[in-house]
């Protein structure tokens, strides 16, 4: 690592002011992307603003028809939360399959969302559930928030405070893990809210998380795994790497979508 | 069998320190005044070094010294060596290019060592390394094994066509005749994928120099500290042996990769004198991927000739072996004498001919990795045999049985004389364990769930107990492969055993103590095993090739014989009897036909006080040493059967059952032996399903971390059903054959034979990743649809 | 440099550290607790797992300064005086280790599994929860057996899971 100064504010407001004041400052959430990158000397922030003591960024609450999760809530806390399990069990399931148990004790929803790794799990959930990212400055709908590979609509100095998920009537998530890294090679989150169906795909897109309108259309007619029979995602715009070429990934999108719907409809085997 | 003697599943003596965090690995060692080394490595696979400018770097904070290949050369530090001479078919010696510890003039793979920076802290050393300016003349790279000999790029001027040697073994004319007479020939093209050993402890070194004594000490992650000292002294020229102490403390796994003498420890120990401070280097995982010696990397065409009944007549093999950019310490022996002599497998094959072309490429050096040559041979044999059975429409178990060697000793056409074995017994037990009869039903059940189920066999043999010195000397080895032991009995009967073997997970502190406890009748806790320090143990050859039981313990056995013989002399004086009348049994020396006896501890005391005998007639003390040189290789063999299920929708392969039945001869500690089998299978399954080192055309290693190189995890594997059969080895006093590599040798063909059985075709290579299996399964599904 | 204080294995420690210092470096280099190991650079192998306020974390991916005021338990702090923790005992009894390098992280991860999932663990659960720990020696077979047995022993009150973790 290159040298940096370290700051640990107690509130999001203090964090924002440090972020504005310090040159080349970066926010440290769970650190499970940033610290390995810094260890490899691929990132060299001049200052780190550690959010782990900001109590106002933590917590899970059901607010009417929304489930609100503080940015510094860990994956383990989301996975184990009775509120999440009750409101959107698929979200708890997703959180319980991010990384490994140790990573889940440190990694946070805010960190994951802000990093927008194309192989991360949470972006699929936010996009499919129509979540809103609440920052210290504004509210951003998920479809506006994720803007490209590792890119988001966050401005300089903007801090994610919480993520608000409208509660879906049915939702499911299925992921095919990269055998080596265990990140999502393909992850598909499906959600049904009223008559609205959303299918969001992570891990596969050249431009990061995206929706699959053809699948949404057939699921709108009937929300069942069988509806996806014969439907294939195109390999165009899909990533290829040493683990999976575009054709295989495109195929897996269909398989994972079906599994996600099966989970959402209680038909998972 | 006593509770702690030979054959007992004694819990390991070494475990207490490991489970309490008190193990002492090289990186745990810190010397007073220690500085840190960081190696500047080549980012290019192939380039000339036009200029290395260290001026700005040398002025950076904390920097104590920056050295390049020229500095080593100026100090007359020799290059790294390859200790096994191979001759080509035409009789010419192998064509080896130079291997300086720090590059001179040219770098030949990504990760090659350009310079070392020694600084007060690791961060300062790394900062300074970034400030070194290197002017590279980038050259095209050659990375592909099969086409390396035809590449325009030449890795070493000394090796035209990038060819190190064209070697062969066997009788070509007899083999050609066998193929002419054959009614059926099975042909197969095989790639044995390149692997990265990845012991969990990365390599490390701490070099120390005592100015007063003019002596060096090197702490290093080595499987064979004495070999390291020998090479660093006699060939690299760091210091004479009496001025160089090498200590290999607790070592966190080796699997072959810590046999070799690498650039980093060479430079650290040398630099300690240069900077006048101890110098420490610890590899990070990325460096390990780039610069630890890799394993395997063969491209092979193989053919098996049979008569009308399926009796094997002959085998023909051509292999191209990638040795990487430089010849590592034992690299040349791996695809030659550790490979081709195993091509007869468990079968009676009258004629075998094997050609091996070894090539240089712009990749990390390739050397021994768990099994070393024998997994490659077994993969060729067991894939060929399985495919032949399928082509002949024969049951794979019956086809194997038909061709098994049955009479021992058996001379193969490729050097080896199998001493003993019972291959049918292992196969029979494995078939029962896996419930072979019930497989057809299980396959139907899988099919009902849309899954493809397959079963695969691997009847492997390996040559261990490496090795008779005269034999390996005649084949080109630069060393003898005996082992040494010294048994020091203390005055009150406690015992230290000094051994040239080195334990880095194998549990020698327990098994070697079991042998001593068993033979001398002393409690296990009274026996300590000392290893891994050239100042304590005089000489030894180290641990690899499943040799420590068969060779290392045989040396201890011999030394114990001498202790008992001396003890009898002492007892004769003390008990006032004739030496010929003294018996030794259950820890007591006694006079035949009387009740007079002397327990072992009392005998030891008498040996040291020497009151009862004239020190001129019988020397005081009870300490004996022995060197044991084996008379033959040992031949562990067994049958592994893998049953697995493929999801054709995702390509995911799940291993459902694994039956392993091995014949390791006599077993000292079955718990430890089973553990070795488990670990070996996991590495073999890793090779078959998950692991593969891949370089791109530019010579960049694209699998240089655990993010991209898939290590087997707990959820990738099943529990294993492990059983044994026993035919004691006749060539060593304990009847031991060796168990360390069996699993890694047996597993890959078992997995691939099971996958191809499930798929119904042979079109899959290792690693059979989900993507590869999915694609292969589509072929299966479309064939099934067409039928 | 910055001041740091935390509790390690029940003892208060203070130090002045470079902000770059990772928890694992602090443990190994400042406190000379070398039982916690580093086996990779990408937060995957789990050789560095310790308990931070009772939860398993990768100490190679945690800044020491982030642990200000926290309680850390390492492998050296797991045994209760002279008596081994039941999970340590289980690893020994079931030959759940060979070279010993992954072992401290493996044992700390195992205790964490029990803390999260209780004392009755099936093979599938154990294997899935070991996703963050790599062993190259054992093939996991005996580790899985050791954890199942150690979990049961912890339930028999030899040493309550919580107490051990915190």
General description of the model:
- The complex is a heterotrimer of chains A (269), B (787) and C (166).
- Chain A is an alpha+beta fold.
- Chain A has helices at 12-21, 34-39, 75-80, 82-87, 89-95, 101-106, 109-115, 122-129, 142-145, 213-221, 246-264; strands spanning 5-7, 25-28, 47-50, 60-63, 66-70, 132-135, 139-141, 146-148, 151-152, 160-166, 170-177, 184-193, 196-202, 210-211.
- In chain A, the strands form four sheets. A five-stranded antiparallel beta sheet of chain A has the order 4-5-10-6-7. A four-stranded antiparallel beta sheet of chain A has the order 11-12-13-14, sandwiched between helices. A three-stranded parallel beta sheet of chain A has the order 1-3-2, with helices on one face.
- In chain A, a hairpin with a 2-residue loop joins strand 4 and strand 5.
- In chain B, helix 9 (374-392) runs parallel beside helix 18 and helix 15 (548-574) crosses helix 16.
- In chain B, the strands form seven sheets. A seven-stranded mixed beta sheet of chain B has the order 3-5-1-12-9-10-11, sandwiched between helices. In chain B, strands 7-15-14-13-8 form a five-stranded mixed beta sheet, with helices on both faces. A four-stranded mixed beta sheet of chain B has the order 18-26-27-28, sandwiched between helices.
- Chain C has six helices and five strands; from the N terminus they run ββαβββααααα.
- Helices cover 35% and strands 15% of the residues of chain C.
- Chain C is globular.
- Chains A and B meet through helix 11 of A and helix 4 and helix 19 of B.
